[in-house]
Amino acid sequence: MEELDKNKSGNPMEGDGRGKMSIEEFLKNDEQKDLLRFLTAGSVDDGKSTLIGRLLFDSKKLYEDQLDALERDSKRVGNAGEHIDYALLLDGLKAEREQGITIDVAYRYFSTNHRKFIIADTPGHEQYTRNMITGGSTANLAVILVDSRAGVITQTRRHSYLVSLLGIKHVVLAVNKMDLVDFSKEVFDKIVSEYKAFIAPLNIPDVSVTCIPLSALDGDNVVDRSDRTPWYDGPSLLEYLENVHIGNDHNLNDFRFPVQYVLRPNLDFRGFCGKVASGIIRKGDAVMALPSGKKTHVKSIITPDGESDYAFPPMSITLTLEDEIDVSRGEMLVHADNVPMTGRNFEAMLVWMDEEKMDMEKSFFLKQTTNTSRTRVDSIKYKVDVNTMDHLSVENGKLAKDDVPMQLNQIAHVVLSSSKELFFDPYTKNKATGAFILIDPITNNTSAAGMIINRVEDKDMHTTMELPVLDLPKLGIAPEHYAAIETAVKDLERQGYAIEIKK
Q1: Whole-structure pTM value
Q2: Which CATH superfamily is domain 6-249 in?
Q3: Domain 341-460 homologous superfamily, CATH
Q4: Cβ contacts of residue 260 below 8 Å, gap of 6+?
Q5: Nearest-angstrom CA–CA distance, 376 and 365
Q6: What is the pLDDT of residues 17-58, one digit of tens each?
Q7: Cα-atom radius of gyration of the chain, to the nearest Å?
Q8: Is 68 helix (H, G, I), strand (E, B) or coil?
Q9: Which part of the chain has CATH 2.40.30.10?
Q10: At what angle do helices 129-136 and 154-166 cross, to 10 degrees?
Protein backbone atom coordinates (compact mmCIF):
# COMPACT_ATOMS: atom_id res chain seq x y z
CA MET A 1 0.00 0.00 0.00
CA GLU A 2 1.24 3.44 -0.97
CA GLU A 3 2.19 5.44 2.11
CA LEU A 4 0.78 8.89 2.72
CA ASP A 5 3.20 11.75 3.27
CA LYS A 6 2.19 13.34 6.57
CA ASN A 7 4.17 16.42 5.60
CA LYS A 8 1.32 17.16 3.23
CA SER A 9 -0.90 18.13 6.14
CA GLY A 10 -3.30 20.89 5.27
CA ASN A 11 -3.09 22.85 8.48
CA PRO A 12 -3.78 26.38 7.21
CA MET A 13 -1.16 27.85 9.49
CA GLU A 14 1.55 25.63 8.05
CA GLY A 15 3.46 25.69 4.76
CA ASP A 16 3.68 28.30 2.03
CA GLY A 17 5.15 30.78 4.48
CA ARG A 18 1.93 30.94 6.46
CA GLY A 19 3.49 29.72 9.68
CA LYS A 20 4.76 33.26 10.32
CA MET A 21 1.26 34.78 10.09
CA SER A 22 -0.98 35.43 13.01
CA ILE A 23 -4.40 33.82 12.90
CA GLU A 24 -5.96 37.26 12.47
CA GLU A 25 -3.67 38.06 9.49
CA PHE A 26 -4.38 34.72 7.86
CA LEU A 27 -8.15 35.08 8.23
CA LYS A 28 -8.08 38.65 6.89
CA ASN A 29 -6.04 37.58 3.84
CA ASP A 30 -8.30 34.58 3.25
CA GLU A 31 -11.45 36.71 3.45
CA GLN A 32 -10.24 39.03 0.69
CA LYS A 33 -9.61 36.26 -1.84
CA ASP A 34 -12.20 35.75 -4.52
CA LEU A 35 -14.26 32.56 -4.76
CA LEU A 36 -14.45 30.12 -7.67
CA ARG A 37 -17.27 27.60 -7.70
CA PHE A 38 -16.76 24.67 -10.04
CA LEU A 39 -18.28 21.28 -10.70
CA THR A 40 -16.76 18.05 -11.91
CA ALA A 41 -18.62 15.71 -14.23
CA GLY A 42 -17.78 12.51 -16.01
CA SER A 43 -18.92 8.95 -16.49
CA VAL A 44 -18.43 6.10 -14.03
CA ASP A 45 -14.74 5.36 -13.41
CA ASP A 46 -13.49 8.51 -15.18
CA GLY A 47 -11.91 9.48 -11.89
CA LYS A 48 -13.79 12.59 -10.76
CA SER A 49 -13.64 11.89 -7.04
CA THR A 50 -10.05 10.67 -7.36
CA LEU A 51 -9.09 13.91 -9.12
CA ILE A 52 -10.58 16.11 -6.41
CA GLY A 53 -9.04 13.97 -3.69
CA ARG A 54 -5.65 14.28 -5.39
CA LEU A 55 -6.19 18.05 -5.80
CA LEU A 56 -6.86 18.42 -2.07
CA PHE A 57 -3.99 16.10 -1.15
CA ASP A 58 -1.30 17.59 -3.39
CA SER A 59 -2.27 21.17 -2.55
CA LYS A 60 -1.80 20.30 1.14
CA LYS A 61 -5.40 20.87 2.17
CA LEU A 62 -5.84 17.79 4.34
CA TYR A 63 -5.33 17.48 8.08
CA GLU A 64 -3.45 14.61 9.66
CA ASP A 65 -6.58 12.93 11.01
CA GLN A 66 -8.07 13.04 7.48
CA LEU A 67 -4.90 11.47 6.10
CA ASP A 68 -4.98 8.71 8.70
CA ALA A 69 -8.65 7.98 8.00
CA LEU A 70 -7.96 7.97 4.24
CA GLU A 71 -5.15 5.46 4.63
CA ARG A 72 -7.33 3.15 6.76
CA ASP A 73 -10.33 3.41 4.42
CA SER A 74 -8.15 2.77 1.35
CA LYS A 75 -6.97 -0.53 2.84
CA ARG A 76 -10.47 -1.50 3.92
CA VAL A 77 -12.82 -0.42 1.09
CA GLY A 78 -10.57 1.28 -1.48
CA ASN A 79 -10.83 0.62 -5.21
CA ALA A 80 -7.36 1.76 -6.24
CA GLY A 81 -5.36 -1.42 -5.66
CA GLU A 82 -2.09 -0.63 -3.91
CA HIS A 83 -2.63 3.11 -4.37
CA ILE A 84 -4.31 5.45 -1.94
CA ASP A 85 -7.97 5.77 -2.96
CA TYR A 86 -8.39 9.55 -3.03
CA ALA A 87 -12.01 9.17 -4.14
CA LEU A 88 -12.93 8.19 -0.58
CA LEU A 89 -12.43 11.82 0.45
CA LEU A 90 -15.52 12.69 -1.60
CA ASP A 91 -17.70 9.59 -1.63
CA GLY A 92 -19.20 9.98 1.81
CA LEU A 93 -22.37 7.93 1.44
CA LYS A 94 -22.24 4.26 2.36
CA ALA A 95 -23.77 3.29 -1.02
CA GLU A 96 -21.13 5.34 -2.80
CA ARG A 97 -18.30 3.58 -1.03
CA GLU A 98 -19.83 0.15 -1.53
CA GLN A 99 -20.46 0.67 -5.26
CA GLY A 100 -17.46 2.87 -6.05
CA ILE A 101 -19.73 5.50 -7.63
CA THR A 102 -20.88 9.02 -6.79
CA ILE A 103 -24.63 9.34 -6.11
CA ASP A 104 -25.18 12.62 -4.34
CA VAL A 105 -23.49 15.97 -4.94
CA ALA A 106 -20.46 16.23 -2.66
CA TYR A 107 -19.29 19.75 -1.83
CA ARG A 108 -15.75 20.51 -0.69
CA TYR A 109 -14.17 23.81 0.24
CA PHE A 110 -10.47 24.59 0.02
CA SER A 111 -8.28 27.61 -0.41
CA THR A 112 -4.85 28.43 -1.85
CA ASN A 113 -2.79 31.59 -1.63
CA HIS A 114 -4.55 32.87 -4.76
CA ARG A 115 -8.21 31.92 -4.44
CA LYS A 116 -10.97 30.14 -2.50
CA PHE A 117 -12.80 27.22 -4.08
CA ILE A 118 -16.05 25.35 -3.65
CA ILE A 119 -16.10 22.05 -5.56
CA ALA A 120 -19.30 20.25 -6.47
CA ASP A 121 -18.52 16.64 -7.33
CA THR A 122 -21.58 15.58 -9.35
CA PRO A 123 -22.82 12.09 -10.23
CA GLY A 124 -22.11 10.69 -13.69
CA HIS A 125 -25.18 8.46 -14.01
CA GLU A 126 -28.10 9.62 -16.15
CA GLN A 127 -30.54 8.83 -13.32
CA TYR A 128 -28.86 11.54 -11.22
CA THR A 129 -29.19 14.35 -13.78
CA ARG A 130 -31.11 16.48 -11.26
CA ASN A 131 -28.15 16.21 -8.86
CA MET A 132 -25.80 17.58 -11.52
CA ILE A 133 -28.22 20.42 -12.26
CA THR A 134 -28.29 21.25 -8.56
CA GLY A 135 -24.51 21.16 -8.26
CA GLY A 136 -23.98 23.22 -11.39
CA SER A 137 -26.61 25.88 -10.79
CA THR A 138 -24.14 28.23 -9.06
CA ALA A 139 -20.93 27.10 -10.79
CA ASN A 140 -18.56 29.44 -12.65
CA LEU A 141 -16.70 26.57 -14.28
CA ALA A 142 -17.09 22.91 -15.18
CA VAL A 143 -14.38 20.25 -15.22
CA ILE A 144 -15.47 17.48 -17.57
CA LEU A 145 -13.43 14.32 -17.24
CA VAL A 146 -12.75 11.95 -20.07
CA ASP A 147 -11.02 8.57 -19.81
CA SER A 148 -8.15 8.74 -22.31
CA ARG A 149 -8.79 5.11 -23.29
CA ALA A 150 -12.47 5.69 -24.13
CA GLY A 151 -12.38 9.26 -25.46
CA VAL A 152 -15.58 11.27 -25.95
CA ILE A 153 -18.54 9.04 -25.06
CA THR A 154 -22.28 9.45 -24.60
CA GLN A 155 -21.91 10.64 -20.98
CA THR A 156 -19.37 13.27 -22.07
CA ARG A 157 -21.89 14.64 -24.55
CA ARG A 158 -24.69 14.56 -21.97
CA HIS A 159 -22.66 16.44 -19.36
CA SER A 160 -21.51 19.01 -21.89
CA TYR A 161 -25.09 19.60 -22.98
CA LEU A 162 -26.14 20.14 -19.35
CA VAL A 163 -23.21 22.54 -18.86
CA SER A 164 -24.35 24.53 -21.91
CA LEU A 165 -27.94 24.47 -20.61
CA LEU A 166 -26.78 25.94 -17.29
CA GLY A 167 -24.86 28.68 -19.09
CA ILE A 168 -21.51 27.82 -17.47
CA LYS A 169 -18.96 29.99 -19.27
CA HIS A 170 -15.69 28.15 -18.55
CA VAL A 171 -15.01 24.48 -19.29
CA VAL A 172 -11.97 22.32 -18.61
CA LEU A 173 -11.73 19.11 -20.62
CA ALA A 174 -9.62 16.97 -18.29
CA VAL A 175 -8.29 14.01 -20.27
CA ASN A 176 -7.58 11.62 -17.40
CA LYS A 177 -5.66 8.35 -17.05
CA MET A 178 -2.98 9.47 -19.51
CA ASP A 179 -0.62 7.08 -17.72
CA LEU A 180 -2.61 4.19 -19.25
CA VAL A 181 -1.95 5.40 -22.82
CA ASP A 182 1.74 6.17 -22.21
CA PHE A 183 1.02 9.92 -22.15
CA SER A 184 0.43 9.84 -25.90
CA LYS A 185 0.12 13.27 -27.53
CA GLU A 186 -1.71 11.68 -30.47
CA VAL A 187 -4.40 10.22 -28.20
CA PHE A 188 -4.83 13.55 -26.42
CA ASP A 189 -5.05 15.57 -29.66
CA LYS A 190 -7.63 13.19 -31.12
CA ILE A 191 -9.87 13.50 -28.05
CA VAL A 192 -9.55 17.30 -28.02
CA SER A 193 -10.40 17.53 -31.73
CA GLU A 194 -13.43 15.25 -31.33
CA TYR A 195 -14.69 17.18 -28.30
CA LYS A 196 -14.41 20.59 -29.92
CA ALA A 197 -16.26 19.34 -32.99
CA PHE A 198 -19.09 18.11 -30.74
CA ILE A 199 -19.50 21.33 -28.72
CA ALA A 200 -19.50 23.59 -31.79
CA PRO A 201 -23.36 23.70 -31.97
CA LEU A 202 -23.73 24.12 -28.19
CA ASN A 203 -23.66 27.37 -26.26
CA ILE A 204 -20.00 26.86 -25.25
CA PRO A 205 -17.51 29.17 -27.02
CA ASP A 206 -14.41 27.36 -28.24
CA VAL A 207 -12.20 29.95 -26.54
CA SER A 208 -13.68 29.11 -23.14
CA VAL A 209 -12.60 25.45 -23.31
CA THR A 210 -9.20 24.51 -21.84
CA CYS A 211 -7.91 20.98 -22.44
CA ILE A 212 -5.49 19.41 -19.94
CA PRO A 213 -3.85 15.92 -20.08
CA LEU A 214 -3.52 14.44 -16.60
CA SER A 215 -3.35 11.41 -14.35
CA ALA A 216 -5.42 11.89 -11.21
CA LEU A 217 -4.04 8.73 -9.64
CA ASP A 218 -0.39 9.76 -10.02
CA GLY A 219 -0.93 13.53 -9.81
CA ASP A 220 0.40 14.46 -13.29
CA ASN A 221 -0.68 18.01 -14.25
CA VAL A 222 -3.09 18.17 -11.31
CA VAL A 223 -1.24 20.59 -9.04
CA ASP A 224 2.18 20.64 -10.68
CA ARG A 225 3.04 20.29 -14.35
CA SER A 226 4.30 16.85 -15.22
CA ASP A 227 7.59 16.02 -16.93
CA ARG A 228 5.81 13.01 -18.46
CA THR A 229 3.95 15.36 -20.87
CA PRO A 230 6.85 17.40 -22.35
CA TRP A 231 4.66 18.13 -25.40
CA TYR A 232 2.07 19.94 -23.28
CA ASP A 233 2.90 23.58 -22.53
CA GLY A 234 -0.33 24.63 -20.84
CA PRO A 235 -1.11 25.06 -17.14
CA SER A 236 -1.74 22.37 -14.57
CA LEU A 237 -5.35 22.06 -13.44
CA LEU A 238 -4.75 24.00 -10.21
CA GLU A 239 -2.80 26.72 -12.04
CA TYR A 240 -5.73 27.21 -14.38
CA LEU A 241 -8.31 27.19 -11.58
CA GLU A 242 -6.29 29.76 -9.63
CA ASN A 243 -5.93 32.16 -12.56
CA VAL A 244 -9.04 31.85 -14.77
CA HIS A 245 -10.78 35.21 -14.94
CA ILE A 246 -14.40 35.02 -13.75
CA GLY A 247 -15.08 38.71 -13.10
CA ASN A 248 -17.02 39.12 -16.33
CA ASP A 249 -19.39 36.24 -15.54
CA HIS A 250 -21.82 38.69 -13.95
CA ASN A 251 -24.13 40.76 -16.13
CA LEU A 252 -23.02 44.34 -15.40
CA ASN A 253 -25.18 46.00 -18.07
CA ASP A 254 -28.76 45.40 -16.96
CA PHE A 255 -29.53 46.70 -13.47
CA ARG A 256 -31.99 44.39 -11.71
CA PHE A 257 -32.75 44.73 -7.99
CA PRO A 258 -35.43 42.30 -6.77
CA VAL A 259 -36.74 43.63 -3.45
CA GLN A 260 -36.42 41.05 -0.70
CA TYR A 261 -37.47 43.06 2.33
CA VAL A 262 -38.83 46.52 3.13
CA LEU A 263 -36.96 47.96 6.12
CA ARG A 264 -38.96 50.43 8.20
CA PRO A 265 -37.34 50.66 11.69
CA ASN A 266 -38.95 54.08 12.31
CA LEU A 267 -41.02 56.75 10.57
CA ASP A 268 -37.86 58.52 9.33
CA PHE A 269 -36.36 55.61 7.41
CA ARG A 270 -37.66 53.40 4.60
CA GLY A 271 -35.18 51.17 2.81
CA PHE A 272 -35.44 48.36 0.30
CA CYS A 273 -33.20 45.39 1.02
CA GLY A 274 -31.97 42.76 -1.42
CA LYS A 275 -29.14 41.46 -3.51
CA VAL A 276 -28.08 43.19 -6.73
CA ALA A 277 -28.97 40.53 -9.30
CA SER A 278 -27.19 42.24 -12.19
CA GLY A 279 -25.95 45.62 -13.41
CA ILE A 280 -24.46 48.54 -11.49
CA ILE A 281 -26.40 51.05 -9.41
CA ARG A 282 -25.01 54.45 -8.40
CA LYS A 283 -26.17 57.05 -5.92
CA GLY A 284 -28.42 59.55 -7.75
CA ASP A 285 -29.41 57.10 -10.53
CA ALA A 286 -32.93 57.35 -11.93
CA VAL A 287 -34.80 54.09 -11.21
CA MET A 288 -38.22 52.67 -11.92
CA ALA A 289 -40.28 50.33 -9.78
CA LEU A 290 -41.98 47.33 -11.39
CA PRO A 291 -44.84 46.63 -11.84
CA SER A 292 -46.11 50.14 -10.92
CA GLY A 293 -43.81 51.98 -13.38
CA LYS A 294 -43.27 54.79 -10.85
CA LYS A 295 -39.94 56.63 -11.19
CA THR A 296 -37.60 58.18 -8.63
CA HIS A 297 -33.89 58.53 -7.83
CA VAL A 298 -31.56 56.60 -5.54
CA LYS A 299 -30.98 58.64 -2.39
CA SER A 300 -28.43 56.33 -0.74
CA ILE A 301 -26.82 52.90 -1.05
CA ILE A 302 -26.13 51.21 2.27
CA THR A 303 -23.81 48.20 2.56
CA PRO A 304 -22.74 46.19 5.64
CA ASP A 305 -19.65 48.45 5.71
CA GLY A 306 -21.61 51.71 5.55
CA GLU A 307 -22.80 53.97 2.74
CA SER A 308 -21.39 53.56 -0.77
CA ASP A 309 -21.58 55.53 -4.01
CA TYR A 310 -22.27 52.40 -6.05
CA ALA A 311 -23.09 48.69 -5.88
CA PHE A 312 -22.83 45.68 -8.18
CA PRO A 313 -23.62 41.92 -8.12
CA PRO A 314 -23.67 39.96 -5.92
CA MET A 315 -23.65 42.67 -3.20
CA SER A 316 -26.40 42.68 -0.59
CA ILE A 317 -27.50 46.27 -0.01
CA THR A 318 -30.26 48.55 1.20
CA LEU A 319 -31.49 51.28 -1.16
CA THR A 320 -33.28 54.42 -0.06
CA LEU A 321 -35.21 56.48 -2.60
CA GLU A 322 -35.81 60.21 -2.99
CA ASP A 323 -39.58 59.77 -3.25
CA GLU A 324 -42.07 57.80 -1.17
CA ILE A 325 -43.22 55.16 -3.65
CA ASP A 326 -44.87 51.84 -2.89
CA VAL A 327 -42.51 48.92 -3.48
CA SER A 328 -43.01 45.49 -1.91
CA ARG A 329 -41.18 42.17 -1.69
CA GLY A 330 -41.16 40.40 -5.06
CA GLU A 331 -41.17 43.66 -7.00
CA MET A 332 -38.12 45.02 -8.79
CA LEU A 333 -36.14 48.25 -9.17
CA VAL A 334 -34.53 48.82 -12.58
CA HIS A 335 -33.09 51.66 -14.65
CA ALA A 336 -35.96 53.36 -16.45
CA ASP A 337 -34.21 53.10 -19.85
CA ASN A 338 -33.33 49.40 -19.43
CA VAL A 339 -36.24 47.23 -18.37
CA PRO A 340 -36.68 43.45 -18.32
CA MET A 341 -39.39 41.56 -20.12
CA THR A 342 -42.71 41.50 -18.33
CA GLY A 343 -45.50 39.05 -18.85
CA ARG A 344 -47.51 36.14 -17.52
CA ASN A 345 -46.55 33.68 -20.28
CA PHE A 346 -43.07 32.49 -21.21
CA GLU A 347 -41.18 29.58 -22.72
CA ALA A 348 -38.37 27.84 -20.88
CA MET A 349 -36.12 24.81 -20.69
CA LEU A 350 -37.33 22.74 -17.75
CA VAL A 351 -35.53 20.02 -15.79
CA TRP A 352 -37.95 17.76 -13.91
CA MET A 353 -36.63 16.97 -10.41
CA ASP A 354 -39.59 15.34 -8.69
CA GLU A 355 -40.02 11.61 -8.14
CA GLU A 356 -43.69 12.14 -9.00
CA LYS A 357 -44.58 12.37 -12.70
CA MET A 358 -45.77 15.78 -13.93
CA ASP A 359 -49.51 16.37 -13.70
CA MET A 360 -50.41 18.70 -16.59
CA GLU A 361 -53.57 19.84 -14.76
CA LYS A 362 -51.72 20.80 -11.60
CA SER A 363 -50.62 24.31 -10.68
CA PHE A 364 -47.31 25.03 -8.95
CA PHE A 365 -45.68 27.79 -6.98
CA LEU A 366 -43.15 29.50 -9.21
CA LYS A 367 -40.22 31.17 -7.43
CA GLN A 368 -38.19 33.58 -9.57
CA THR A 369 -35.82 36.07 -7.87
CA THR A 370 -37.82 37.16 -4.79
CA ASN A 371 -41.16 36.76 -6.55
CA THR A 372 -43.66 33.97 -5.96
CA SER A 373 -46.67 33.23 -8.15
CA ARG A 374 -48.97 30.40 -9.10
CA THR A 375 -48.19 28.83 -12.46
CA ARG A 376 -49.08 25.88 -14.64
CA VAL A 377 -47.56 24.15 -17.64
CA ASP A 378 -49.48 25.25 -20.74
CA SER A 379 -47.74 22.89 -23.16
CA ILE A 380 -44.62 20.81 -23.74
CA LYS A 381 -43.11 21.60 -27.14
CA TYR A 382 -40.55 18.79 -27.06
CA LYS A 383 -38.38 16.71 -24.77
CA VAL A 384 -34.61 16.47 -25.16
CA ASP A 385 -32.84 13.12 -25.32
CA VAL A 386 -29.81 14.15 -23.24
CA ASN A 387 -27.70 11.35 -24.73
CA THR A 388 -28.27 12.19 -28.40
CA MET A 389 -29.58 15.82 -28.20
CA ASP A 390 -32.58 14.68 -30.29
CA HIS A 391 -35.86 16.57 -29.90
CA LEU A 392 -38.74 14.25 -29.08
CA SER A 393 -42.29 15.40 -29.78
CA VAL A 394 -45.67 14.03 -30.77
CA GLU A 395 -45.43 16.09 -33.97
CA ASN A 396 -42.21 14.44 -35.17
CA GLY A 397 -43.41 10.98 -34.17
CA LYS A 398 -40.69 10.43 -31.57
CA LEU A 399 -42.98 10.80 -28.55
CA ALA A 400 -46.26 9.09 -27.69
CA LYS A 401 -49.05 11.23 -26.22
CA ASP A 402 -48.98 9.25 -22.97
CA ASP A 403 -45.25 10.05 -22.61
CA VAL A 404 -45.63 13.84 -22.91
CA PRO A 405 -45.80 14.61 -19.13
CA MET A 406 -42.31 14.95 -17.73
CA GLN A 407 -40.69 12.41 -15.43
CA LEU A 408 -37.68 12.49 -13.12
CA ASN A 409 -34.46 13.80 -14.77
CA GLN A 410 -36.15 14.62 -18.07
CA ILE A 411 -35.51 17.93 -19.84
CA ALA A 412 -38.07 19.66 -22.03
CA HIS A 413 -38.89 22.89 -23.85
CA VAL A 414 -42.12 24.06 -22.22
CA VAL A 415 -44.53 26.98 -22.15
CA LEU A 416 -45.73 28.21 -18.75
CA SER A 417 -48.45 30.59 -17.66
CA SER A 418 -48.25 32.57 -14.42
CA SER A 419 -51.08 33.99 -12.33
CA LYS A 420 -49.40 37.41 -12.24
CA GLU A 421 -46.86 39.36 -14.23
CA LEU A 422 -43.22 38.42 -13.81
CA PHE A 423 -40.15 40.53 -14.59
CA PHE A 424 -37.48 38.47 -16.32
CA ASP A 425 -34.67 38.29 -18.88
CA PRO A 426 -33.65 35.36 -21.08
CA TYR A 427 -31.44 33.03 -19.04
CA THR A 428 -28.65 33.24 -21.63
CA LYS A 429 -28.52 37.00 -21.07
CA ASN A 430 -29.09 37.16 -17.32
CA LYS A 431 -28.96 34.02 -15.19
CA ALA A 432 -30.12 35.81 -12.06
CA THR A 433 -33.48 36.88 -13.52
CA GLY A 434 -33.88 34.07 -16.05
CA ALA A 435 -33.84 31.16 -13.58
CA PHE A 436 -36.75 29.79 -11.58
CA ILE A 437 -37.98 26.74 -9.70
CA LEU A 438 -41.41 25.11 -9.45
CA ILE A 439 -42.65 24.04 -6.01
CA ASP A 440 -45.37 21.45 -5.50
CA PRO A 441 -47.95 23.26 -3.30
CA ILE A 442 -49.03 19.99 -1.62
CA THR A 443 -45.72 18.24 -0.91
CA ASN A 444 -43.54 21.39 -0.92
CA ASN A 445 -41.03 19.45 -3.07
CA THR A 446 -38.96 21.23 -5.68
CA SER A 447 -40.61 19.78 -8.77
CA ALA A 448 -38.49 21.43 -11.45
CA ALA A 449 -35.79 23.97 -12.25
CA GLY A 450 -36.11 26.17 -15.30
CA MET A 451 -34.28 28.57 -17.58
CA ILE A 452 -36.40 31.21 -19.34
CA ILE A 453 -36.01 31.57 -23.11
CA ASN A 454 -38.53 34.29 -24.05
CA ARG A 455 -41.99 35.65 -23.35
CA VAL A 456 -45.01 34.25 -25.19
CA GLU A 457 -47.98 36.25 -26.47
CA ASP A 458 -51.47 35.44 -25.17
CA LYS A 459 -52.62 34.49 -28.69
CA ASP A 460 -50.01 31.69 -28.79
CA MET A 461 -51.23 30.04 -25.58
CA HIS A 462 -53.41 26.95 -25.57
CA THR A 463 -55.46 28.20 -22.64
CA THR A 464 -55.45 31.28 -20.44
CA MET A 465 -54.91 31.10 -16.69
CA GLU A 466 -57.98 32.94 -15.44
CA LEU A 467 -57.57 35.10 -12.35
CA PRO A 468 -60.19 35.06 -9.58
CA VAL A 469 -62.11 38.36 -9.65
CA LEU A 470 -63.17 40.31 -6.58
CA ASP A 471 -65.98 42.64 -7.73
CA LEU A 472 -66.29 44.98 -4.75
CA PRO A 473 -69.43 46.95 -5.80
CA LYS A 474 -71.21 43.74 -6.76
CA LEU A 475 -70.39 42.30 -3.35
CA GLY A 476 -71.85 45.40 -1.73
CA ILE A 477 -68.56 46.47 -0.11
CA ALA A 478 -68.41 50.15 0.79
CA PRO A 479 -65.57 52.27 -0.68
CA GLU A 480 -64.13 53.02 2.77
CA HIS A 481 -63.10 49.34 2.98
CA TYR A 482 -61.34 49.25 -0.41
CA ALA A 483 -57.90 50.20 0.94
CA ALA A 484 -57.93 47.40 3.53
CA ILE A 485 -58.99 44.85 0.90
CA GLU A 486 -56.26 46.02 -1.49
CA THR A 487 -53.67 45.60 1.28
CA ALA A 488 -54.91 42.05 1.95
CA VAL A 489 -54.86 41.19 -1.77
CA LYS A 490 -51.33 42.57 -2.11
CA ASP A 491 -50.24 40.34 0.77
CA LEU A 492 -51.78 37.32 -0.99
CA GLU A 493 -49.95 38.27 -4.20
CA ARG A 494 -46.63 38.14 -2.34
CA GLN A 495 -47.55 34.56 -1.41
CA GLY A 496 -48.23 33.70 -5.05
CA TYR A 497 -52.02 34.15 -5.17
CA ALA A 498 -53.01 36.77 -7.73
CA ILE A 499 -56.52 38.28 -7.53
CA GLU A 500 -58.10 40.87 -9.80
CA ILE A 501 -60.02 43.65 -8.03
CA LYS A 502 -62.92 45.48 -9.63
CA LYS A 503 -63.99 48.76 -7.98
Answers
A1: 0.80
A2: P-loop containing nucleotide triphosphate hydrolases (3.40.50.300)
A3: Translation factors (2.40.30.10)
A4: 273, 274, 275, 329, 370
A5: 9
A6: 444 556 666 556 656 678 899 998 887 777 777 788 788 777
A7: 26
A8: helix
A9: 256-335, 341-460
A10: 40
